[in-house]
Design brief:
1% strand; two-stranded antiparallel sheet
Length: 301
């Protein structure tokens, strides 16, 4: 048991160092957050502000409150996408497979499942490092333009980062278990980076999409982690709006910006979103372990 723990620890440290050793790999992981930041600053911020102003009509709100709300929307989007895309772009397993380095480990006494889990944990930790760095930037930005989060909101955002990153890391490593191709890996990373921002509502609210797209996104676990980010980044600003705006208008903003989310017409409570994300992460973990064990048995044969 002690030997297994030592082997796992050594493999985990090796995988983590290998990821951060290559600056290009780290930069590629940050491409999607950088794109989101540029899009927000250049285009999306003014669009969101105009949307809110159209909703409230003749009523007015403070510029600080408007900036705090749009800033919260920005970083809820950045974190929602980054937890997924960074996981898919920071895998050491696929790098070892492409370089055939994994075959060297397979001839050692280390069980295959320990090797696979070390890849998964390193991927999770590297994702969390990037995402928590982005969260820190977001909190500093909100402190400058308009900060309406409570301590509980910040802690729950951290919980959501942990859950979403765990789900994404398990899913990414599960997919990598079946491929050794650089082309397939690049295609998956490109597809996830390009599409996930739209699917999760990072570029535009899910509520503004067509009914078919809304129903499709309601079937994806990642959507519910996005809703959780929305709730905790925006709820404080929305409560502040209730002091100067009629409640129906505030509820309209909640619905229009995905703070309230509906599954085929039924509002999804927060506890259900947590259960869906956590359940998806556990399911991916169980599948990943099962595939690792089966592949290990097949290799020995």
């Amino acid at each position: 048991m002690k030997r297994a723990v030592q082997s796992f620890s050594a493999l985990f440290r090796r995988n983590l160092k290998l990821y951060f050793k290559d600056p290009m790999t780290f930069f590629v992981s940050l491409i999607t957050p950088i794109i989101l930041l540029v899009l927000f600053i250049t285009f999306l911020r003014s669009n969101y502000e105009q949307t809110i102003l159209r909703i409230i009509g003749d009523f007015t709100i403070e510029k600080k409150l408007l900036d705090g709300f749009t800033g919260g929307w920005l970083f809820s989007s950045v974190l929602a996408t980054s937890c997924i895309t960074v996981s898919f772009c920071s895998g050491v397993m696929i790098v070892d497979k492409i370089n055939n380095a994994d075959t060297d480990f397979l001839v050692t006494p280390v069980p295959r499942y320990l090797l696979q889990l070390s890849y998964c944990l390193a991927n999770l930790v590297s994702t969390l490092i990037v995402c928590f760095a982005l969260l820190s930037i977001g909190l500093i930005y909100l402190a400058i333009v308009g900060f309406y989060l409570t301590l509980a909101d910040v802690l729950l955002v951290i919980v959501d980062v942990l859950l979403t990153s765990a789900f994404a890391s398990m899913l990414a490593n599960l997919i990598w278990s079946f491929t050794r191709s650089q082309g397939v890996n690049s295609g998956i990373c490109t597809l996830v980076s390009a599409l996930y921002g739209f699917i999760c509502g990072a570029y535009m609210p899910i509520a503004s999409m067509g009914e078919g797209v809304q129903n499709f996104t309601a079937l994806l676990p990642g959507t519910y982690s996005t809703v959780l980010f929305r709730r905790y980044f925006l709820e404080g600003a929305l409560k502040e709006m209730e002091g100067s705006l009629p409640l129906p208008l505030v509820e309209g903003i909640r619905d229009g910006f995905d703070v309230n989310f509906y599954f085929f017409g039924m509002e999804v409570p927060m506890y259900a979103s947590y259960l869906i994300v956590a359940g998806a992460a556990i399911l991916m973990l169980l599948l990943f372990v099962l595939v690792s064990i089966l592949q290990g048995r097949r290799t020995r044969k």
